[in-house]
Amino acid sequence: MKPIFADDAAIKVAAKLLSQGRLVAFPTETVYGLGADASNPIAIKRIFQAKGRPSDHPLIVHISSIDNLSDWALNIPDTAIKLANHFWPGPLAIILNKKPEVPLEVTGGQNTVGLRMPDHPVALQLLSVFGGGIAAPSANRFCRISPTQAAHVEEELGSTVDMILDGGVCGVGVESTIVDLSGDVAKLLRPGHITRQEIEAVLQEELRIAESQVQPNLSDVRAPGMMSVHYAPLTVAMLCPYDRLDDIIKLLCLQNKTIGLLAYQYNPPENRGLHLLCMPEQAESYAQTLYASLRDLDSRELDIILIEQPPETQAWYAINDRLGKATTLAWPNH
Ligand code: TXA
Ligand code: MG
Question: Which residues pair with residue 208 across a beta bridge?
Answer without folding.
Answer: 187
